[in-house]
């Protein structure tokens, strides 16, 4: 497979355009696979990201501001995601004891159990990155870091 065949386009303005289109297309492709795996657990990829952030701090809470800073998708509506996690009883929130303008969020035991189930199931990363060697993954990470440093 190649980006040319996948999107049925053989001409690009230049190699930079082709590479960026390939990054965006691959992001969508990987995200679909991740969504399919997470759907079996009743959560979205943004909820999964937030649960992992909360687990990293457990048993201490994170403010919604701190969560937003760590989210992979910076456009995520953190408050809406928190509310959905609360409806599913996988997180709880309270007014911050330090700053009453902030809301603290804590993962619940049910949320921790969902993450344990995901951790024990098929390795999401391995499924998405199965065709790439360790050396290639390291090189890819370095190239992506380099792209973000250019601005």
Question: What would you note in describing this structure?
Answer:
The protein has helices spanning about 5, 15-40, 45-55, 65-70, 80-85, 110-120, 125-130, 135-150; strands at about 60-65, 90-95, 105. By secondary structure, the chain is mainly α. It folds into 2 domains: about 1-40, no CATH class; about 45-120, Arc Repressor Mutant, subunit A (Orthogonal Bundle), CATH 1.10.10.10. The protein has a 3-stranded antiparallel beta sheet.
Throw out a few tags for this protein:
three-stranded antiparallel beta sheet, Arc Repressor Mutant, subunit A, 2 domains, single chain, 8 helices
Topology:
Blueprint (H helix, E strand, L loop, with lengths): L2 H4 L8 H25 L5 H13 L4 E2 H7 L7 H10 L3 E5 L7 E5 L1 H12 L3 H5 L5 H16 L2
Antiparallel strand pairs: 1-3, 2-3
Which class of the largest domain in CATH terms?
Answer: Mainly Alpha
Sheet having the most strands: 3 strands, antiparallel
CATH topology (level 3) name of the largest domain:
Arc Repressor Mutant, subunit A
Residues in helices, as a percent range:
55-70%
Listing every helix as H and every strand as E from the N terminus to the C terminus, the arrangement reads: HHHEHHEEHHH
Q: What is the gyration radius calculated from CA atoms?
A: 18 Å
Low-confidence stretches: none
Strand content: 5-15%
The gross shape turns out to be elongated
Class by helix and strand content?
mainly alpha
Overall number of strands: 3
Identify the CATH architecture of the largest domain. Orthogonal Bundle
Rounded mean pLDDT score? 90
Task: Identify the CATH homologous superfamily of the largest domain.
Answer: Winged helix-like DNA-binding domain superfamily/Winged helix DNA-binding domain
Quickly count the helices.
8
Query: Whole-Å distance between the termini?
Result: 31 Å
How are strands sequenced across the largest beta sheet?
1-3-2
What is the count of structural domains?
2
